[in-house]
Design brief:
The chain has a single domain, classed as Beta Barrel (Lipocalin), CATH 2.40.128. The chain contains 1 helix and 9 strands. Strand 5 and strand 6 form a beta hairpin. The longest helix is centred in the middle third of the chain and has 12 residues. The chain is elongated, with a radius of gyration of 17 Å. It holds the Pfam family YceI. This is Lipid-binding protein.
């Protein structure tokens, strides 16, 4: 059974995030730095990719000063601690049909995560997409969480945020022997 490695293209892959609060939501992007996916017998069996936490962008805040302040806050210790932890890592542990079991590491903290992914191969190109729902408090992002602070009223930020992943990868010429 043939095992094939696909290198992720950071420029053709992207992550869209949505964070919600009582009064609405914010959304933006974050870059995929690098990574690879492994297929065995044409099926996804493993892989990992590195997320560049310093690349987070907010797309719905149009005032430049407010956007810069918000981006700085997301990079701060209240959220991603991007200076200390410039990378997050998603490492696939197992795959059953379209169900992915992985380890997600943010701020040096690792937890298991499950999500559904769609993977398509066209020649030497691989396209994958999936949606992760992440509880930020499990990664020491407690700012305005109702689990840790009381009487937040309309300043409460919900614990879960969504990460829509779209990955494009190219086959590596040398296949891995099974």
């Amino acid at each position: 059974m043939e095992t094939q490695k696909f290198e992720i293209s950071g420029t053709q892959s992207h992550l869209d995030w949505v964070g919600r609060k009582v009064t609405g939501a914010h959304h933006g992007t974050i870059d995929v730095k690098a990574g690879s996916l492994i297929l065995t017998g044409g099926k996804l069996t493993g892989g990992e990719f590195i997320i560049d936490t310093a690349s987070i962008k907010i797309l719905d805040v149009t005032d430049p000063a407010t956007n810069a302040q918000f981006a700085g806050h997301l990079a701060s210790e209240d959220f991603f601690s991007s200076e200390k932890y410039p990378e997050a890592l998603l490492c696939i542990i197992s795959v059953s049909e379209n169900q992915i079991e992985a380890h997600l590491t943010i701020k040096g903290i690792t937890h298991p995560i499950s999500f559904t992914a769609i993977v398509n191969v066209d020649g030497d190109m691989l396209f994958a997409s999936g949606k992760l729902v992440i509880d930020r408090t499990r990664y020491d992002m407690k700012f305005r969480s109702g689990n840790f602070f009381k009487d937040l009223g309309d300043t409460l930020i919900y614990n879960d945020f969504d990460l829509d992943v779209k990955v494009t990868a190219r086959a590596v010429k040398e296949n891995i022997l099974a």
